[in-house]
């Protein structure tokens, strides 16, 4: 059985649907903004990670260059009482 709705009921249903649609569009916009912000933060963190990796590599190379060529480092030597 189909139920005939009055024009007032139809208007209320339409208004309810429009309200729900507007609410959903608002939340989609909010989520889109959050995703954009997270993407920006992720890009910055990836850049920072790359810079830190490069500096660590440079420090490691500088440390290796300053080590004696014999391969023995002072911190690897045993103290005299051993």
TrEMBL record:
UniProt xrefs under Gene3D superfamilies: 1.20.5.300
> What residue spans carry the region label Disordered?
55-82
Q: Which residues form a coiled coil?
A: 28-55
Basic and acidic residues compositional bias: what residue ranges? 73-82
Q: Which UniProt keywords apply?
A: Coiled coil
* Pfam families (UniProt xref): SlyX
In the UniProt record, does the keyword Coiled coil occur? yes
Name the chain's protein. SlyX
Could you tell me which InterPro entries the record lists for this protein? SlyX
Q: Where is the signal peptide?
A: none
């Amino acid at each position: 059985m189909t139920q005939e709705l009055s024009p007032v009921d139809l208007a209320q249903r339409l208004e309810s649907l429009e309200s729900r649609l507007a609410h959903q569009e608002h939340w989609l916009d909010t989520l889109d903004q959050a995703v954009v912000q997270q993407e920006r933060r992720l890009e910055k963190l990836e850049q920072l990670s790359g810079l830190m990796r490069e500096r660590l590599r440079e420090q490691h190379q500088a440390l290796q260059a300053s080590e004696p060529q014999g391969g023995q480092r002072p911190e690897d030597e045993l103290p005299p009482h051993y």
